[in-house]
Amino acid sequence: MIYKDTNEILPKILKRSDDYEEKYLSTVLSIIDDVKKNGDSALKIYSKKFDNNPDENLEVTKKEMISAYDNIDEQLKLDLQLAKKNIEEYHKNQLEKSWFIEKEGTILGQKITPLDKVGVYVPGGKASYPSTVLMNVIPAKVAGVKEVIVVTPAKDGKISEIVLAACYIAGVDKIFKIGGAQAIAALSYGTETIPKVDKIVGPGNIYVALAKKLVFGRVDIDMIAGPSEILIIADDSANPEYVAADMLSQAEHDELASSITITDSPNLAKEIEKYLNIHLKSLPKKDIAEKSLKQYGGVIVVKNINEAVELSNSIAPEHLELAVKNPFELLPKIKHAGAIFLGHYTPEAMGDYFAGPNHTLPTGGTARFSSPLGTYDFFKRSSIISYTRDSFLKQRENVYRLAKSEDLDAHALSVKVRG
């Protein structure tokens, strides 16, 4: 579908997940309350009900992880290990250090401390996602988190071998065979088997997203992930087949995914549409991709590339590809995007699996104020303050007056008695 009026498509894209929360809210609240009260027994009931998992043992053994690693294809092992190396190297550059400054008898600073326990949710209903394991576990390990726990549904009692192998490669400490809102509840409150964590990260369906939202405050979370999206800014230098393939790579995720190209070339728009139709016919997930494109996809034709940039900034996409002659010249104009892919040979898939930057990204316009997952998500900062007696006496009266101005007499007293 080619659009010249953005009002035909943009409102649908920006509001595509708004109606879903209310529909599932009571179910998720009920599940959380049940797990909170009944622990493992509730988890086992939900595991049988939703995943047809008859296994009473919720934890995956180290032996099972190693066995899965041994069983996967040797080239796939190498691919996962190379991806791990790239992800580690990239995220090491995000590490923060504790720092201190001394000034006139005071020492001020900031202490960086890794979180103790982190839970990673790995979806497992319709497909296997080893990349989710690597992208969520490795930054936590690089940050120095002591214990990383993975939860993932075991359909018919089984977890994909490649997911288990990725857990082994990434250094996961524990894996539990449980998914959905019940897994989020277990990580938030703890059960007889599953320990309570400090933070939960990782994507999931609407039940998982809602559960994360509801437990936030009791534990920290990374973000509320909505349906995924790609936006491509393309000029007449773009290859229409490349652009169409990149749009389809997002559309095959699910029916709510959004794949949009914005171009100043009407001819390119027609060619993109042609290649979308060609490749859609042979796509295994044709039905999903077709629905996604029909509802939330298309090519928008604008007057010039500057207008395309303005439109992109208003959408704040999760993935933004700059398929233009000079992408680095356009980059300074981009204000809001989760990840930015520059040039004709940088498809989103490179970032999803291998390049190194994290693929856990803000969706639904939240790139206006939030960032990709990184090592900075896995440590906390403590302020450091120290005064000598002389430096305290120099500033005591300032603090005394400020405390009195707020009618906090005990605060004022605490500095007065040190005179």
UniProtKB/TrEMBL annotation:
Binds 1 zinc ion per subunit. The active site is at E318, H319. It comes from Calditerrivibrio nitroreducens (strain DSM 19672 / NBRC 101217 / Yu37-1). The gene is hisD. The keyword Hydrolase does not apply. Keywords: Amino-acid biosynthesis, Histidine biosynthesis, Metal-binding, NAD, Oxidoreductase, Zinc. Its cofactor is Zn(2+). Substrate binds at S228, Q250, H253, H319, D352, E406, H411. It comes from the Bacteria. The keyword Membrane does not apply. Catalyzes the sequential NAD-dependent oxidations of L-histidinol to L-histidinaldehyde and then to L-histidine. This is Histidinol dehydrogenase. One of its GO terms (cellular component) is cytosol. CDD domains: Histidinol_dh. NAD(+) binds at Y121, Q182, N205. Pathway: Amino-acid biosynthesis; L-histidine biosynthesis; L-histidine from 5-phospho-alpha-D-ribose 1-diphosphate: step 9/9. Gene3D superfamilies: 1.20.5.1300, Nitrogenase molybdenum iron protein domain. Zn(2+) binds at Q250, H253, D352, H411. GO terms for molecular function: histidinol dehydrogenase activity; NAD binding; zinc ion binding. Belongs to the histidinol dehydrogenase family. Pfam families: Histidinol_dh (PF00815). It catalyses: L-histidinol + 2 NAD(+) + H2O = L-histidine + 2 NADH + 3 H(+). Signal peptide: none annotated. Its EC number is 1.1.1.23.
